[in-house]
Structures are given as structure tokens and as C-alpha cells.
Amino acid sequence: MSFPEYGLTPTFQAVNQLCSHFDAYRDNPKITELKDRFKSIKRILKSHVFSDFSSLGTGKETEEANYLQQLSDACLLVDALEPSVREDSVKNFCSRELTSYQQIFEGAELAKLDKTERRYAWIKRRLRTNEEIWKIFPPSWHVPYLLCIQFCKLTRTQLEETLSNLNEKPDVGTLLLEQNDHKDLSVPGAGFNFRGIISSCFEPYLMVYVELEEKTLMEHLEKLVQEETWDVEDGSQTNILSSSIQVFERILKAYATKLFGRLPKGGTGIVAAATGMDGQIKDEFSAVITKALITLVHGIETKFDTEMVAMTRVPWGTLESVGDQSAYVNGINTILTASIPVLEAFFQLYIFSSFLTSTHTSIFAACIKSWSSLFPQYIQMQAHIGNRSTTNVIGYTSCKNNSSGYSFPWKTGMLAPLLDCRN
Fold it and tell me: Which parts of the sequence belong to the Vps53 N-terminal domain (predicted)?
């Protein structure tokens, strides 16, 4: 068929509609003869269209000025034929486009998994180079989309063959193109998407991917810890990571995000497995929290060394009654007043309450140890402590002052175990 004859497409469409009105007379010999002749014409048209499209991509489009316009007209004729003609035309075109790809990447060198990125570079370059030429196809044909579908299927077949012949673990960093194609080329109503077309061939090897994710997370955690800096006080026995909360928060958020993104809809098996792991994970991090609290309490204790020594030098044997606070009590109060609000900013309420309780218990135990040699006087102190100390420990968190922030109950409760006896 010559190109000018593609201009007869509207006439062909009219004849096609006219024939549909004679379907009720298909038993009439004359009608049957005319319809058979029309079918023969359709076969001839199909053959000519396929022949003309076979020259696309051979350089003919640059040699003949009207070539692309004529092929655009031919697309209208194809739409006037049966839907199968359009499907076959697009399928043949995509197969021709991928012939060179198949030949290039079937070789021993480029077929390796570490060359997979070059496969993706090939299809991206092909789409970009031919973008203007492929505009001859109507948008409803979805030619770039269908070309990528065939490309992905062919790639999966080749990768499956490569994986089956591997004697070592594969590198699985090959999912980016799938995600990009799904975002850039997905067609509403097309009934197909790119998710999993290529990556499905890696399913038997997913343990390698899990190991890669774990390695990446651990490297990220190590990097954050190495970047952490802190000032060490002279004589201090505890080094505190000032941004440890950010370290755990960032790594856990990243891990949770990655897990969430890989959970398929309806993944009840994964949910069940995750539910079983939930208790174990909570136990692990509860142990971390407990250890961190113990470390912080110990850090607070080390700041009291001078005050504790001063307490042991008090002439307890000469005291007869309970009195007001001594200098060492005021010193401890000053330390706690400066330290506790800083630590509170990093804690959730229930953890902070636990920290206060642990601090109270630790100070109380230190006092008992210091006073154990002064038993008679200690009995009198113990009675006084029992009435005043317990109820105020956790009460710190509710002591707010509208004008100046927190008010500190150390003098009336938290430090009750440290009240001394005066004449």
C-alpha cells in the first residue's frame, strides 16, 4: 500500500460500520461474498501496515521527510481494523526494538549480575532517544509502557538463567528501575504494573537481601556512634552519649520505614511473625533502658562523693535530736537541682518516674551504709525518714510553677533521708 492510500481511512471506517448493519443477512450468498472480499482487503491492509512499520528505526525516518507523518496516519487505519491488529503491531514493534538488547546481554560478560545496571541504562537511553519518533503512536496504544513490560519480562528470564548457574551469593541491588518505571510509566486502566516483574526472580535469594539490609543498618549505626563526641570530666567514671536517644531513634525509624515499605497488602503471615517477635524486641529494649537508668543513677552518685565524706565527719554521737539541713545536704540538693531537669528533657514520663525512684533508693542506701556504725542515732533518723520521704519521690513530675517552671521538692521529700540531727 502506498502512503497516500492511508488517507482513505475514514472511508474504510464507514465501510466497516456499513457491514455491521448486514450481520442479520449473513445467510444471503451475495452478502457473504461481499463480507469475504472485505475480510480479504483487511488482510492485505494488515500486511502492508506491518511492512511499513518494519522500517521504523532503520534510519528511513531521517531519509524521507513525510515518513513519520504517514506512519501516524497508518496508526489510524490500524485502529479501524480489529483490535488484534493493533496488538500484533505493537508486539512486533517491541520485539524488534529488543532484538539488539537480547543479543547484547546474552553474552557471557554482560550477562553477569554486576552488569545489571547497564541493562537499565540501555532501556532508559532507548526511551529517551526515541521519544520524539514514538510520538507517531497514539497515546492509547501505550507503546513505551508495553515496551518496558516486554523488557522487564525478557530481563527476568535472562536473570533467572544467570541465577540458576551461580555458585555464589548474588548482588541484589537491582530494584530501582522497577520502582522508577512503576512511577513514570504506569498507565491507568492498563491492568498491569511493574512491581515485582524483575524482582520476583530474586525471591529464592531474599535472605541475601535481608543480610544486606542488616549490614546497611549496622554500618549506619556505627557511623553515628563514631561521630558522637562528649566532654569527659576529670575523675569521671561515666562517659555519657549525649545524643544516644537520637541514635536509637534514627536507626529504629529507618528500620521501621524499610520494613513497612516491604510489607505486601494482606501479608498476614508476615504480621503473625512480627507479632511473635514483638515481645522479644520489647524485652531487648527494656533491658537497654534499665541498663541506661542504672548507669545514669551511678553517674549521679559519683557527684556526691564530697558530700558523703562530709556526712561521715559529722559528730553523730553528740547529737540528740533531728534538726534542719546541714551543708552536705544543701550540696547534694544543688547537684540534683542542676542535673535532674536536664535529664528529664530526654525521658518519657514513666521512664523519668522510674529514674527518680532509682535515684531515691540509691541515695537512701548510701545513707544507710554511712550510718550503719551509728545504730542508736540511726533508729531515730529512720523513724523521721519513714514519715517524710516516700510520698515525695515521684511527686517531682507534678510540681510545676506557672511563672518559673519547676519547683524542686528536694528539701521536703526527696532529700529527707539526708536530713541530719542537730541539738
Answer: 11-228
Residue with the three cell numbers 559519683: 302
In this prediction, residue 417 carries a pLDDT of 41
- pLDDT tens digits, 115-128: 778 888 899 999 89
Q: Domain boundary at 171, 200, 229, which?
A: 200
Q: If pLDDT is split at 50, 70 and 90, which confidence band does 225 have? A: confident
Residue 79 is predicted with a pLDDT of 86
pTM equals 0.46
Q: How many domains does the chain have?
A: 2
Could you say which DSSP state residue 322 is in?
B
CB atoms within 10 A of CB 396: 23
Banded model confidence at residue 334, pLDDT cuts 50, 70, 90 = confident
407's grid cell: 519547683
Residue 140 lies in a domain: yes
Grid cell in block for residue 380:
531515730
Cβ partners under 8 Å of residue 25, min gap 6:
31
Residue span of the structural domain in which 346 resides? 303-418
Cβ neighbors of 105 (< 8 A, separation 6 or more) are 111, 115, 118, 119, 122, 158
Structural element, H or E, at residue 400 = strand 400-401
C-alpha cell read off for 117: 545496571
Whether 400 contacts 310, CB under 8 Å: no
* pLDDT the model gives residue 23: 78
What string of DSSP letters covers 98-112?
HHHHHHHTTSTTTTS
Q: What is the DSSP letter of 359?
A: H
Q: Is 319 exposed, middle or buried (0-12, 13-18, 19+ CB in 10 A)?
A: middle
Nearest by Cα to 71 from 87, 94, 95, 89: 89
